[in-house]
Design brief:
seven-stranded antiparallel sheet; 526 residues; Elongation Factor Tu (Ef-tu), domain 3; alpha+beta; 30 strands; elongated
Length: 526
């Protein structure tokens, strides 16, 4: 006989499991006072039922009369070890007559139970008080267990449905056959070609010449010196307050300042006639350029409020024709000034041409259409004209300007690929398309012939061609197929070499219906 001791916190399932798993047929279950197991009659009922199924003979041993009463009430043998006597198989529970609904709230009605031992020599009588909540605990616990089982069932069903929705996945590996195609020969871009052509040794595609013109200016310091005499120059405004007739003033006409400095007209000027209205004359005017009569800084004068014309002196026109300058005369100089040397001019010319070449190439890249192809060395820059201004600026520099033109031979690489595709189609009975991007290597030094509109070089063309594969269409057709149906579908694909299918988790037997759960890995082999 095996004796099993119950801990105060042991649950009914754990106690029952220990009883039915014991090797002995006869079991003594010792239940101390105040254990969780002894609080419910259902625990003893379950113990009796499961022990009976397992073929176990169970005796309850306890000093807790409550445990003994509940054990006896379900027909279990119950013994108090201190008295060494067996308890009756049935206990009587009698309500206390002196406790009424008027003296006690319904929630705390109490009762007495009396337990009589089978041994008549000694009667043990003990009062045990229980509230109505204790009387109702057993059915309520049964309801709780039903609800718990229902919730657990719902949980497991929900988890199962979730796993069925979330986890299933199909991993499909497909290997297709690829057909290589290579061409090595000469390449020509020709502006006269209308369509691309391919022979055994040469491919010709239509070419286009792009042109652009620009100019570029550059200021460089002048390193040489020379003695110069410069006359001051400036602008004046000539007025006709004399009459309504116009007046011609020839080149070299003198204009004098109040202190006697002379400036001369640079060119002939016709001063318009004054306007006369209502007997009132309104002076007319015209702008003109003058230069000092002598070089030197003394003539850097102005502004001057009134210039006289000595040629009209002692005539009525002397007072009627005059001039003024609103800005100073400038440029009068005598002395050494910087001038560009021949070496300065040569260096500046070379620098401005290089800068213009860079500008033309940069702008050509920006202006070319994005879909055209150019090769390194497929452009040509030419200087059309140059202008070297040898007059030195006040900062001691001079300016050089270059004018140039760039020509770039361009073509469409799509024309090259299309003629290769036509060649592949001619040599194969299959419907093939280009896989990825072909590997194209052009010669490093193309020969340019813009006069003929041609550019030629060598070419190495390497490509792979495969039969078309519609990934989304395949996923749609593969959905919901079992493994056998899926393999049949795979080996019906054009160009297929091999395929592998993995359904996950292990219990999945069909491809998911959701295309996002179908993973397809495609590789190509020769």
């Amino acid at each position: 006989m095996k004796k099993i001791y119950v801990n105060k916190t042991d649950t009914a399932p754990s106690v029952i499991e220990r009883v039915i798993s014991a090797e002995d047929k006869e079991i003594t279950l010792y239940i101390p006072r105040g254990t969780q197991f002894s609080t419910l009659k259902n625990n003893f009922s379950l113990l009796k039922r499961e022990a009976g199924h397992a073929g176990k003979l169970v005796t309850i041993e306890s000093v807790d009369d409550t445990a003994l009463d509940l054990a006896a009430s379900v027909g279990l043998n119950a013994v108090n070890p201190f008295f060494g006597r067996k308890m009756r198989a049935v206990s009587d529970i009698v309500l206390k007559s002196e406790i009424t609904e008027q003296t006690q709230p319904k929630s705390i009605h109490r009762y007495k139970n009396y337990v009589a031992h089978d041994d008549k020599s000694q009667d043990l009588k003990e009062e045990a008080d229980f509230g109505i909540e204790e009387l109702n605990r057993e059915p309520r616990s049964r309801l709780q267990r039903v609800i718990s089982l229902l919730l657990i069932t719902i949980l497991f069903v929900g988890v199962g449905v979730g796993l069925a929705i979330i986890l299933p996945r199909a991993d499909i590996n497909l290997t297709f056959k690829e057909t290589p195609f290579e061409f090595d020969g000469s390449f020509v871009a020709d502006t006269n070609a209308k369509t691309p052509t391919l022979s055994s040794a040469q491919v010709i595609v239509p070419g286009t010449v792009f042109k652009d013109v620009q100019n570029y200016s550059m200021a460089c310091p002048a390193s040489d010196k020379k003695n110069v005499e410069q006359k001051a120059t400036g602008k004046i405004t000539i007025y006709n307050a004399y009459g309504s007739s116009s007046q011609l003033l020839v080149k070299g006409t003198r204009f004098t300042t109040p202190d006697g400095k002379v400036f001369r007209l640079d060119a002939n000027v016709t001063v318009p006639g004054a306007k006369v209205s209502g007997g009132k004359l309104t002076p007319s005017s015209i702008a003109a350029t003058v230069a000092a009569d002598k070089p030197g800084p003394d003539y850097n004068v102005g502004p001057v409020s009134r210039f006289r014309i000595p040629g009209f002196q002692n005539t009525p026109k002397y007072e009627g024709f005059y001039a003024e300058s609103k800005d100073p005369m400038t440029g009068g100089f005598i002395g050494n000034v910087a001038v560009p040397s021949m070496d300065d001019i040569a260096k500046t010319k070379s620098a401005v041409e290089a800068a213009l070449t860079d500008a033309l190439n940069s702008q050509a890249i920006l202006k070319l259409p994005q879909n055209v192809k150019t090769l390194a060395g497929s452009s040509q820059v030419a200087m059309t004209s140059e202008n070297i201004c040898k007059t030195v600026n006040p900062d001691g520099s001079f300016t050089a300007t270059a004018y140039g033109e760039i020509k770039v031979m361009t073509f469409l690489e799509s024309d090259l690929i299309s003629v290769m595709a036509a060649k592949v189609a001619d040599t194969s009975s299959l419907n093939l398309i280009l896989k990825g991007t072909p590997e194209i290597t052009y010669g490093s030094a193309p020969a340019l012939g813009f006069a003929k509109g041609q550019m030629s070089t060598s070419i190495a063309f390497k490509s792979y061609w495969v039969q078309p594969f519609d990934l989304n269409g395949f996923k749609s057709r593969a959905a919901n197929k079992n493994e056998t149906e899926l393999k049949t579908l795979i080996f019906s694909l054009p160009g297929i070499k091999s395929g592998e299918v993995k359904l996950w988790p292990f219990w999945v037997t069909k491809v998911p219906g959701d295309a996002s759960k179908i993973r397809v890995d495609v590789v190509y082999e020769p």
